[in-house]
# Entry
Amino acid sequence: AAAAAAAPRSTPAPQRGEFRYIQDDQDEGADLMPLLERRLKHSSHKSAQFRLCAGPVFHFSQVKQWDATFGCGYRNIQMVAKHLVHSSARMRAALFDGSQQTPNVFTLQRVLEQAWGAGFDSDGQKHFHGSVYGSQAWIGTTECCALFRYFNVQAKIVDFYARNYKTDGNAELVDWVWKYFEPGFRETPFGGVGNGFASVSHSQKPPLFFQHQGHSRTIVGVERREEGGKLKYFLLIFDPQVSDLARILASEKGWERHLKRGVHTLNMDKYQIVHFEGLFPSPEARSRSKVLSADEQIGVAF
# Structure
């Protein structure tokens, strides 16, 4: 069994016999999308085009000597959940029983166990022997989906298998992300190649939960630019392993290495993305979603 996690003193854990939503210490952070947009518009690559998810997006980081070794999945769930809570009144009412708080890791562990108890992802429940509360067990895409589907949110998994990552660097993945963040409702006033600024457009889509073996992150956008007659793509990432992202984005230098990931860095055989498509249209649709599998597979499974 995984060792019990020692939480910071300010992060209380609900007792086994009770349940309540306990707000995470980081829940008062600011929306970082305006800061990111400010950095992007002054990109040194004037041919660059950026597509961003809908805002707001808040960053939750893993805490040293607490969840640094296991907490990335929970922190990305927090980022997506807080965005969704701010996205509509219906989402606010659906998620976490309308508490409008971002639960801490302990609470999310309890919620995941509740989702299993309600029949979501029985395979995952068996894998973890029905219990993650107080443990340092890693979680990933299926646990993320089970938790959100439990709250009536349509969370869907896409599997990406690299045909040859050494030559194409998971190009199909970044192409999918580029199309997913198709601009929705507005383009920034300064947008447009040729006027001295990079082009920044906004989607109506939520951020993406992005998983590979050993780590997960949150995709908040994608960059495309031309270099040497070829198009190059870079994912824009909020990484839970990065601390004090607001301070990093406030600086004009050095921020890119913390947020940008080029196609050449995507050198795993398999990646998974969870995307979020609103609430289920009916109780029957929610019930059918209890058995988890990839909703889409791209590339060739090895």
The longest strand covers residues 215-227. Residues 4 and 135 are 5 Å apart (CA to CA). The chain is about 30% helix and 20% strand.
